[in-house]
Amino acid sequence: MNWIKNDTLVLYPEDNLDLHQCCSSSSSFQQPLYTLYSVINHNGSINDGHYTTFCRDLSSNQSPWFECDDEIIKYLHSDKLSLNSNAYLLFYTMKQTTE
């Protein structure tokens, strides 16, 4: 059996991820929204490869994205985040509601 890594581009939201359709709660309260703060990437084949990460510090107002590749850390261009076919894991945090 030959396994092949799926490199299909999957679009994922950076801000305002809404999971209300996935939740079983039928409460009338507003469902929370989520903000992306890290993406783990896998470059290579299904049996071999290298992991990198895109991340940002949400405590700052500008929240620039960084690319971390071993000891190399550099600013990330937004196109590289949105057109990323190597995304393996996405990390979101719940946004603070103003109620």
Describe this structure in words.
This protein is mostly beta strands. The longest helix has 5 residues, at 78-82. It is built from one helix and six strands; from the N terminus they run βββββαβ. Strand 2 and strand 3 (49-56) form a beta hairpin. The protein has a domain at 33-94.
Please name the defining characteristics of this protein:
single chain; mainly beta; six-stranded antiparallel beta sheet; 1 helix; 6 strands; flat
The biggest sheet, with number of strands, parallel, antiparallel or mixed sense and barrel status, is:
6 strands, antiparallel
Output the radius of gyration. Answer: 16 Å
The share of residues in helices is under 10%
> What percentage of amino acids are in beta strands?
35-45%
The number of helical runs is: 1
Which term fits the overall shape? flat
Distance between the termini: 54 Å
Backbone structural class:
mainly beta
Instruction: Give the rounded overall mean pLDDT.
Output: 87
* Uncertain runs: none
The topology string of helices and strands comes to EEEEEHE
Q: Total number of β-strand segments?
A: 6
Topology:
Blueprint: E1 17-18, E2 33-44, E3 49-56, E4 65-69, E5 72-75, H1 78-82, E6 87-94
Antiparallel strand pairs: 1-2, 2-3, 2-6, 3-4, 4-5
Describe the structure concisely for a colleague.
This protein is mainly beta and 99 residues long.
